[in-house]
C-alpha cells in the first residue's frame, strides 16, 4: 500500500492527461495557440516519475516525496476537476473562470511585459522595505537602550504604529512629488512599525547579566549596543522583519492599484477593468510564487544568521 501511495502524484497526472486528451471541449472558451495545460501536465509527469523512481534509491528523494505525495496528488486532481468544469463542460461563467490553457498562455506569451511589471514592483518593494527596516532597527535600538528615546518615541509608536499604512494614502499622495516615492514611503511605514516593536522588545528582554559582564570586561556603550544587545535580540528582530514583509506585500499591492502606474498590482487592476480575468489570475499566480520565494529567502537568511535557532520557526 505504501509503495502505491508514492505513485499517487504520477497516477493523478496520468488521469489529468487522459481527461485532457480524450474528453471533448465545451467550445465556450477561446482556443489558445498551444495546449499549454497539456504541456504542463507532461512536465509534471516527467518530474514526478523521475522523483518517484529516484525514491527507491535515494533517501532524500524518498523523504521529500513521502512528505508531499498526497498533497501533490490532490493539487493535480483539483486542477483536473477545474479543467473539467471550465474547458470541458463549461459549467462556470466563461468571463470569470477562464480555462487553465488561457491562464497559462498569458504567463507564457506575455512573459516579457509581466517580467517588466514584476521588476517595477520589486524596485518599489525593496526601496520601501530597505528604508523601513533601517528606520525600524534605528528606532527600536534607540527605544531599547535609551530611556529618553523611550519616553518621547513610545507614545508615537503606540498611537501611529497600529494605523494601517494604507490608511495614509490620501495624505501621502498629496505630500510626495511622485507616486513612486509616496508608495515607497507607505511600504517603509508598514515595515517600520513591527520592526521597531520587535527590535525594542528583543533588546529589553536581553538579560542584564550580559551587559554587566561586558561592562566588567571593559566594554564601552557602543560595544554593548552592537556587540551584545543587538546580536542577542536578533530572534525578535527577524520576527519583526517577517511581520513587516507580509505588511509590505499588502501595502505594495494596494499602492499599485491606487496610485502607481506600473507594477504587477497595477497590471491586475488594469486587466480587471478590461474584464480579462485570465490575465488577472496569471498576475495572482505570479504574485503568489514571487512572494513565496521572497519569504523563503528571508527564512534562509535567518537560518544562516541565527544558526543556533535553525528550524525553530519553519516555513
Features of this protein?
single chain, 315 residues, mainly alpha, 14 helices, 78% helix
General description of the model:
There is one protein chain. The chain has 315 residues and is an all-alpha fold. The chain is 78% helix and 0% strand. The protein contains 14 helices and no strands. Helix 13 (264-273) packs antiparallel against helix 14. It is flat and about 80 Å long. It starts with a helix and ends in a 10-residue tail after the last helix. The relative contact order is 0.10. The mean pLDDT is 87.
- Report the oligomer: single chain
Shape: flat
DSSP, total strands: 0
Query: What string, H for helix and E for strand, traces the elements in order?
Result: HHHHHHHHHHHHHH
- What radius of gyration results from the CA coordinates? 25 Å
Characterize the biggest β-sheet. Answer: none
Give the class from helix and strand content and strand pairing.
mainly alpha
| Unreliably modeled segments | none
Distance between the termini: 30 Å
- Report the β-strand fraction as a percent range: under 5%
Amino acid at each position: 500500500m505504501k509503495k502505491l501511495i508514492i505513485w499517487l502524484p504520477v497516477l493523478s497526472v496520468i488521469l489529468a492527461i487522459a481527461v485532457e486528451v480524450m474528453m471533448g471541449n465545451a467550445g465556450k472558451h477561446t482556443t489558445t495557440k498551444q495546449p499549454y495545460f497539456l504541456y504542463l501536465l507532461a512536465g509534471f509527469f516527467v518530474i514526478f516519475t523521475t522523483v518517484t523512481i529516484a525514491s527507491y534509491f535515494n533517501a532524500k528523494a524518498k523523504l521529500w516525496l513521502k512528505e508531499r505525495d498526497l498533497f501533490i496528488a490532490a493539487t493535480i486532481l483539483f486542477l483536473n476537476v477545474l479543467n473539467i468544469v471550465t474547458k470541458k463542460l463549461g459549467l462556470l461563467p466563461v468571463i470569470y473562470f477562464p480555462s487553465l490553457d488561457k491562464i497559462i498562455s498569458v504567463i507564457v506569451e506575455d512573459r516579457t511585459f509581466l517580467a517588466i511589471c514584476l521588476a517595477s514592483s520589486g524596485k518599489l518593494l525593496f526601496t520601501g522595505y530597505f528604508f523601513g527596516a533601517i528606520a525600524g532597527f534605528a528606532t527600536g535600538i534607540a527605544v531599547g537602550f535609551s530611556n529618553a528615546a523611550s519616553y518621547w518615541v513610545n507614545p508615537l509608536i503606540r498611537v501611529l504604529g497600529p494605523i494601517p499604512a494604507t490608511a495614509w494614502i490620501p495624505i501621502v499622495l498629496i505630500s510626495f512629488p511622485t507616486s513612486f516615492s509616496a508608495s515607497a514611503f507607505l511600504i517603509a511605514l508598514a515595515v517600520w512599525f513591527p520592526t521597531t516593536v520587535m527590535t525594542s522588545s528583543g533588546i529589553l528582554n536581553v538579560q542584564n547579566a550580559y551587559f554587566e559582564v561586558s561592562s566588567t570586561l571593559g566594554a564601552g556603550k557602543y560595544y554593548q549596543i552592537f556587540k551584545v544587545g543587538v546580536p542577542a535580540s536578533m530572534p525578535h528582530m527577524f520576527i519583526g522583519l517577517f511581520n513587516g514583509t507580509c505588511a509590505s506585500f499588502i501595502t505594495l499591492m494596494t499602492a499599485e492599484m491606487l496610485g502607481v502606474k506600473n507594477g504587477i498590482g497595477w497590471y491586475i487592476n488594469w486587466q480587471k477593468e478590461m474584464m480579462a480575468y485570465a490575465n488577472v489570475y496569471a498576475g495572482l499566480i505570479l504574485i503568489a510564487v514571487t512572494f513565496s520565494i521572497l519569504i523563503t529567502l528571508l527564512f534562509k537568511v535567518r537560518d544562516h544568521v541565527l544558526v543556533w535557532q535553525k528550524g525553530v520557526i519553519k516555513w
